[in-house]
């Protein structure tokens, strides 16, 4: 039986536009010790880890006449040197220069005739650091059969991981007659699947909303995304039609600052993170001369992993947890930071209700750097929902607090890169690692040309909260 792309994923793939590529990325910065994590070493480490990711050596082959969704097939011409590329900044390169390069790399769509992922090894960073920028298409990483490369690339120790046994040998790609025959056979043996394929391939992806919600585990949450319009007023600036250009900024903050506020106000770290983002968005809107009335809010789509009641998850099961799209109204109109925190905490509690988000402690039990996979799943959820129902995508996934390594290179910083939708000019990824909280701001070059200003506002907003008299 062919490894056929699910109908909903096929609809996402066919709905992709050059201005809105649907890949998820990360920017991992490594410390080098006497140059031991060079390009050849990085290539070797990535090549070994592909043994754990068979789909990273497969490409999608379309079925003639679109009789069925494409199938995953071995790329007989797989070339690791094509997927892992070398680049450099003029030394000593700054983080700002790195982020500018990341934006240009992320705005380029992936090659559909090859496996849908790329990695860039970037030298020249000040402090003898290097960066590894990865990008993978939403349909490639499903959390069950395939996780993100960054998750298997990083280990708790610097020792080499034992490669899988045997050398990879690609199977011959099926010809068009085989593709058609398999499609007809599938239609005869699974008529319900055929009807589903026809519906998804013929209609807009929005028509699959109900199925998406049931898969996620919450029809009501997805229905609210579809029917509740995004707030108007200042928030409309975040719903500009997206161009082909991108801007990116990363922000590194201290996790202890968030914990201090959490302890003082009896809330969660997640509440504090969203309050900091709320304050930053308010300051950014005001920096553009925008009047922000007291009632103004920004509606965020927040994909959240849930666990069943009294369920205990093993690391292998976490990636298949229910990921539900919640709508959170961020009170950007509230001028007082402590009241903003109260509003956000109340909104979070009201939206989640009796649902149980997967805890940070449980999340970090997953091997490697699991937030990379969870961000890919969050992007899949966002990509399957109507874009007019929210203003900004925000995904927050806690990461491990111990040092991680890619071969001999120690990870020192990591920033998520989430994709933009057609009418969403900003996407924010948040993760934590080794005592720090990292924000990755991916924006449209026209609508969010001042994304670095918003990045500065995140630090100001955190300082404003931390400086309050408790």
From TrEMBL:
> Which top-level enzyme class is recorded in the Swiss-Prot or TrEMBL entry?
transferase
Q: Which UniProt keywords apply?
A: Acyltransferase, Glycerol metabolism, Lipid biosynthesis, Lipid metabolism, Transferase
Question: Keyword Transmembrane helix, does the record have it?
Answer: no
GO BP, one annotated term: response to nitric oxide
Give the molecular function GO annotations. Answer: diacylglycerol O-acyltransferase activity
Domain of life of the native organism? Bacteria
Any one annotated GO CC term: plasma membrane
Query: Record's Pfam families?
Result: WS_DGAT_C, WS_DGAT_cat
Q: Is-annotated flag, keyword Transferase?
A: yes
Q: Where is the O-acyltransferase WSD1 C-terminal domain?
A: 327-465
Could you tell me which PANTHER family the record lists for this protein?
A: O-ACYLTRANSFERASE (WSD1-LIKE) FAMILY PROTEIN, WAX ESTER SYNTHASE_DIACYLGLYCEROL ACYLTRANSFERASE 4-RELATED
Provide the family line: Belongs to the long-chain O-acyltransferase family.
Name assigned to this protein:
Diacylglycerol O-acyltransferase
Species annotation: Prauserella sediminis
What is the taxonomic lineage of the source species? Bacteria, Bacillati, Actinomycetota, Actinomycetes, Pseudonocardiales
């Amino acid at each position: 039986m062919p490894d056929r792309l699910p109908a909903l994923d096929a609809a996402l793939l066919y709905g992709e536009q050059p201005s809105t590529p649907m890949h998820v990325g990360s920017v991992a910065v490594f410390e080098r010790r006497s140059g031991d994590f060079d390009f050849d070493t990085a290539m070797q480490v990535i090549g070994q880890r592909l043994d754990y990711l068979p789909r990273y050596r497969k490409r999608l082959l379309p079925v003639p006449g679109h009789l069925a969704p494409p199938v995953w097939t071995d790329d007989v011409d797989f070339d690791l040197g094509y997927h892992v590329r070398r680049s450099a900044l003029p030394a000593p390169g700054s983080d700002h220069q790195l982020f500018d390069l990341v934006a240009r790399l992320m705005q380029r769509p992936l090659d559909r005739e090859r496996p849908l992922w790329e990695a860039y090894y970037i030298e020249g960073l000040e402090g003898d650091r290097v960066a590894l920028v990865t990008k993978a298409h939403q349909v490639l990483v499903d959390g069950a059969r395939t996780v993100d490369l960054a998750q298997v690339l990083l280990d708790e120790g610097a020792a080499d991981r034992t490669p899988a046994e045997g050398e990879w040998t690609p199977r011959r790609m099926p010809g068009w007659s085989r593709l058609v025959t398999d499609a007809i056979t599938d239609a005869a043996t699974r008529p319900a699947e055929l009807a589903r394929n026809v519906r998804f391939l013929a209609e807009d992806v929005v028509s699959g909303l109900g199925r998406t919600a049931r898969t996620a585990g919450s029809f009501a949450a997805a229905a609210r995304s579809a029917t509740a319009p995004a707030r108007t007023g200042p928030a409309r600036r975040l719903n500009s039609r997206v161009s082909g250009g991108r801007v990116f900024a990363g922000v590194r903050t201290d996790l202890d600052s968030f914990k201090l506020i959490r302890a003082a106000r009896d809330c969660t770290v997640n509440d504090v993170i969203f309050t900091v983002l709320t304050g930053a968005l308010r300051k950014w809107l005001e920096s553009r001369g925008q009047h922000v009335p007291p009632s103004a809010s920004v509606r965020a789509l927040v994909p959240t992993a849930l666990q069943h009641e009294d369920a205990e998850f093993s690391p292998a099961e976490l990636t298949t947890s229910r990921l539900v799209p919640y709508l959170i109204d961020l009170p950007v109109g509230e001028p007082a930071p402590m009241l903003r925190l109260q509003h956000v905490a109340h909104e979070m509690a009201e939206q989640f209700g009796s649902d149980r988000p997967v805890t940070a402690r449980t999340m970090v039990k997953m091997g490697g750097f699991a937030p990379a996979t969870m961000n890919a799943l969050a992007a899949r959820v966002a990509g399957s929902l109507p874009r007019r129902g929210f203003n900004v995508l925000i995904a927050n996934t806690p990461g491990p607090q111990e040092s991680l390594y890619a071969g001999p290179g120690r990870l020192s910083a990591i920033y998520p890169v989430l994709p933009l939708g057609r009418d969403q000019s900003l996407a924010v990824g948040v993760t934590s690692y080794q005592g720090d909280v990292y924000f990755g701001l991916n924006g449209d070059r026209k609508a969010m040309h001042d994304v670095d200003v918003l990045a500065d506002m995140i630090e100001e907003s955190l300082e404003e909260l931390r400086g309050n008299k408790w």
